[in-house]
Amino acid sequence: MSKAQQRLSQVQSHLASSEADIRTGKEGLLQKSPDDIVVTCALRTPITRGGKGGLKDTAAADLLAHAFTSLLSRSHIDPTLVEDISVGNVLAPGAGATEYRAAALVAGFPETTAVKTLNRQCSSGLQACVDIANAIRCGMIDVGVGAGVESMSSQYGPGAVTEFSELLDSYQEAKNCKVPMGVLSEQMASDRKITRDVQDTFAARSYQRAEAAQKAGKFSEEIAPIKVKWVDPKTDEEKEIVVDKDDGIRPGMTVEGLAKIKPAFKEGGSIHAGNASQVSDGAAAVLLMKRSTAEKLGQKIVGKFVCSSVVGVKPLLMGIGPWKAIPVALEKAGIRKEEVDLWEINEAFASQCVWCVKELGLDANKVNPNGGAIAFGHPLGCTGARQVSTLFNELGRTGQRVGVTSMCVGTGMGMAAVWVKE
User: Fold this and answer.
1) Rounded to the nearest 5°, which phi and psi values hold at 48?
2) 62 neighbors 226 (Cβ within 8 angstroms)
3) Which of 75, 122, 164, 260 is the most buried (most CB within 10 A)?
4) pLDDT by residue (tens digit) across 322-350?
5) Alpha carbons 8 and 299: distance in angstroms, whole number
C-alpha cells in the first residue's frame, strides 16, 4: 500500500470514529458546546387584565423599562456589554421603536446599546429572542436582549389595523388577513368539530392549573414585582400599588361555570370570553450570549436556545400554526416529539390549542402544566418572551431538560422554538 493510500485509510478511519462519536436525538441535544447560544436570565412583569388590572394605567414603555431594570439587577450583567436589544410589540404605532429605545436608556443601558422593535403579531416576543440568538450565532454581536411588551389597556382596538387598499381587498386570500381572529376561530371550531364542551374543559383545566401554580408560588421566580400608579375605577382615586402577581387567574373556575358565558362571536357559537386568551398587559426580557461568553463573564446559565421555525398557513386557519411549525422545529433540532419534556403552547383560543395538541399527538399532561393565556393572559408582543421564563422555571422545578415554545400567529402563521434547560 502506497503512503498516499495509507494516509487516505487513516483519514477515513478518523472520520468514521468522529461520526460514531456524534450523538443524535435528545442525547445529542444535551451536549454542551462553547458556541451554544445560552440564556443567563429570563423574567417578566406580572400579567394583568386589560382595562381592569393592576397595570392598566402603566405605559408599555414603563413596563419594558422595569423588565430591563430587573434583568440588569438579577443578572448583574454590565450593561455596556449588551450590544443590541430586540423588542417584540404588536399594537404601538411603529411597534414602539422610539419609546422603547428611550425605555432602554431609562433602564440603564448606555447609548452604545442599540434597540430595534418588530411586529410578527403574536410571536413577536419569540421572534425578538430568535433575532438576538441568530445575531450572536453569526458573530454580529456577543451579548443581546430579546424582549416583548404590550399594553392592551391603552392600545388595543380597531385602530391597530390599517384600512386595506382596493388592491388588497380585490384578492380574496389577502382580504382574509383582516378577518377577526375570533370569527375565523369560531368557523374553524365548527368545521373541525371542536365542541364547546371540549373547549370549556380545556379552558377550565388551564384556570385550575394556573390557580394551583399561583398558590404554590410557581410564578414567583419569573415575576419581577413592579410599583405603579393605579386609578381606582370605583372612586377615581390614584393610588400607588405594588403588583406582584398575575391578576387574571379566576379561582374556582369549572366547566359548569364556563358553560354559563354567552358566545362572543356568533349566536349559538362555542367561543367566549372564558375559553379564549385574555386581553392583558405585561412585559418580558431574556438575556442571551454564547456559552463561552457566559463562562468568561461568570454568568449563571439558565438554559440554551437550540433552533426555531416559522411557517405560513392559510389566513383563515391561523390557529393551526403550531401544528405546522412544531414538526419543523423538531426536525431542525434532530429530535422526536417523545423526547420533549415540556410544551408551552400559547392558548390564543381553546379551540385551536385543543386541535393542535390532538393532531400532533402530544401528551396533554406535558402541555402548559401551569396553565396558559386563557388563565393569565396574552399581552400580544410579550407572550413569546414570557414563555421562555415560564418554560425554564418549570423544567428546573421538575428536573427535566427539553422544552418547546410555540404559538399561532395572526394572518396565518405559526412559530416554534426548542430550548434545553442547563
Assistant:
1) -125, 165
2) no
3) 122
4) 999 999 999 999 999 999 999 999 999 99
5) 44
